[in-house]
């Protein structure tokens, strides 16, 4: 049977990381994946993720200030690509403007949509904005919904989405397994000073909203027994606010955005992580590094239930107290440092490809029947 190619939309660093295992597994299964890069993050290193040799089209669309206008522009541009190629399926991941643009393009051109990482919800459209709305819109129209966990699948069932739900695990854990080997990992305790690793890039922590977090870091930096690494985000606006607030403090190292292997190494060497990132919430439990989440709500509650992470928000004193408690109380530390896999076992891509391989011939037959 002839199978048209499958278009995989990639806009940002986390989408590239999480779609790499799916793309490679589709390629191995002979299902002709083609990457469509939107340009939302302009310099994605696909070679480091094993995707250097794949057929790739670039849209070179820079993100603007208005995420809705950007998603609309992407939907139009991706729609033109889909009409030219007529793929059997367009695959999008997560909740970015690129994912929304890819899904809207599929809905408008009649190309079926598959959503990887479906069903994540905070149930608050403002947190994170506009990603929560993006996920709901994508899931309402996608034909194949790859929910990472039972919780995300239950969210989809409660919404009565018409697509088919498959529970697969999160493909981010597949990517992590490729980096570090079998999971969950029992890492050796790092020697030397305890280290705090910080990443912070969500819109709700942009600009002056970052101030209480910076004050907490400066307070913690007064302790001679703690080293602090802050990894800057590729977004220059956010990076410059962090630089202005933290540069000059000799105990705080400001690191440029790291490549994926470098980031995983930094996580492995950290004693505690402070982050508002989605992907880091999935990775830290698997690596057994306690994580304090700089948000008031999360769409990833599984890591709280497994005891590996705690939601903190961004109140200065609370951040300081919780970091000190972790570093001063070995029992408390141990309770959050037991590695676990609440988001998946690292074999999600295989399950996704199997579902697509079963779905394709059935969908293809239906399409032929409809045309006849
Ligand atoms: C809160 C939220 O809405 N987050 C969304 C956001 O990702 P998310 O918040 O995860 O985006 P990040 O930019 O933090 O990327 C996380 C990934 O990048 C890696 N990393 C991080 C820093 C660094 O310097 N180098 C590096 O390689 C991390 O190890 C992780 O794998 O888009 C993802 C892709 O659609 C979605 O799954 C998430 O739901």
From TrEMBL:
It catalyses: UDP-N-acetyl-alpha-D-glucosamine = UDP-N-acetyl-alpha-D-mannosamine. The keyword Amino-acid biosynthesis does not apply. GO terms for molecular function: UDP-N-acetylglucosamine 2-epimerase activity. SUPFAM superfamilies: UDP-Glycosyltransferase/glycogen phosphorylase. Residues 28-356 form the UDP-N-acetylglucosamine 2-epimerase domain. Its EC number is 5.1.3.14. It is an enzyme of class 5 (isomerase). Pfam families: Epimerase_2. It comes from the Bacteria. Keywords: Isomerase. Belongs to the UDP-N-acetylglucosamine 2-epimerase family. This is UDP-N-acetylglucosamine 2-epimerase (non-hydrolyzing). The lineage of its organism: Bacteria, Pseudomonadati, Pseudomonadota, Alphaproteobacteria, Sphingomonadales. The gene is wecB.
């Amino acid at each position: 049977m002839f199978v048209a190619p499958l278009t995989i939309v990639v806009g940002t660093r986390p989408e590239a990381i999480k779609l790499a295992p799916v793309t490679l597994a589709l390629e191995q299964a002979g299902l002709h994946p083609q990457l469509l890069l939107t340009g939302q993050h302009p310099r994605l290193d696909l070679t480091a993720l094993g995707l250097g040799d794949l057929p790739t089209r670039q849209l070179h669309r820079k993100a603007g200030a208005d995420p809705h206008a950007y998603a609309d522009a992407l939907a139009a541009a991706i729609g033109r690509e889909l009409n030219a190629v007529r793929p059997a399926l367009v695959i999008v991941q997560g909740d970015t403007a690129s994912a929304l643009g890819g899904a809207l393009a599929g809905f408008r051109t009649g190309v079926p949509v598959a959503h990887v990482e479906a069903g994540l919800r905070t149930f608050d459209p403002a947190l994170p904005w506009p990603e929560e709305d993006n996920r709901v819109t994508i899931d309402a129209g996608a034909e194949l919904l790859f929910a990472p966990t039972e919780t995300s699948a239950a969210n989809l069932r409660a919404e009565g989405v018409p697509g088919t739900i498959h529970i697969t695990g999160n493909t981010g854990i597949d990517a992590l397994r490729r980096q570090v080997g079998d999971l969950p990992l029992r890492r050796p305790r790092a020697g030397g000073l305890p280290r705090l690793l910080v990443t912070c890039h969500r819109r709700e922590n942009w600009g002056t909203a970052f101030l209480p977090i910076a004050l907490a870091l400066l307070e913690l930096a007064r302790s001679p027994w703690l080293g602090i690494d802050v990894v800057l985000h590729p977004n220059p606006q956010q990076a410059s606010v962090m630089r202005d607030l933290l540069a000059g403090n000799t105990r705080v190292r400001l690191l440029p955005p790291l490549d994926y292997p470098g980031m995983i190494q930094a996580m492995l060497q950290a004693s505690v992580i402070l982050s508002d990132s989605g992907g880091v919430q999935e990775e830290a439990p698997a690596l057994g590094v306690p994580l304090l989440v700089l948000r008031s709500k999360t769409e990833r509650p599984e890591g709280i239930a497994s005891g590996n992470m705690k939601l903190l928000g961004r109140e200065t004193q609370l951040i300081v107290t919780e970091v000190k408690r972790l570093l001063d109380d070995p029992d408390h530390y141990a309770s959050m440092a037991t590695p676990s896999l609440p988001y998946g076992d690292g074999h999600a891509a295989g399950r996704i490809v199997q579902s697509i391989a079963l779905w394709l011939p059935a969908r293809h037959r239906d399409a032929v029947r409809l045309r006849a």
